[in-house]
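Quick note —
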Amino acid sequence: MALIDALKWRYAAKKMNGQTVPQEKVDYILEAAKLAPSSSGLQPYKIFVITNPELKEKIRAVGFDQSQITDASHVLVWAAWDGYSLEKISAVFDRTIAERGIPADAMDEYKNRLWGMYEPLGQEWHANHAAKQAYISFGIAIAAAAEQAVDATPMEGFIPAEVDKLLNLSELGLKSVLVLPLGYRDADNDWLVNLKKVRTPEDEFITEIK
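Predicted structure written out below.
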């Protein structure tokens, strides 16, 4: 399915039918999410893939009882770093250096300049910045799901602190940011499925400056 056609097809499914999404489609969506751009290539987030029915029930309980969480085939949770540190940044740069086969000190100047900018901005700024990077990956995952004709319902409606507890994220230096159930629409019971997709008109949405 061409991307624009796929995006016209997709919507935020309100009811899912419990059908299992083939693993190859899930893998495609996750690979797209992994390939998303992020600031300085840090990828300051991880994705948790949840199929355990009991855990999905617990997430639904702190997700405002949204049925898609339990009726989905897979529930993806984006968890962002709770802050930056020189150690975390260095680990990413060390992997880049190793995979590219370049000198060990090749990125030192950039790394130190980056940390010099980030360090004084504080923990709250760090967490917000990391979360913004997760949103980029999240958006690409939604587009990839549409390409695969898999329904994906973007969710910010949950209690992050409770999801953090369920996934032991604090111990990993992470905070839950976004939830994305993957599955298939229950067309007979979803009030939104046949409603027209409405977006801002192009002449209001786009401003050309020449």
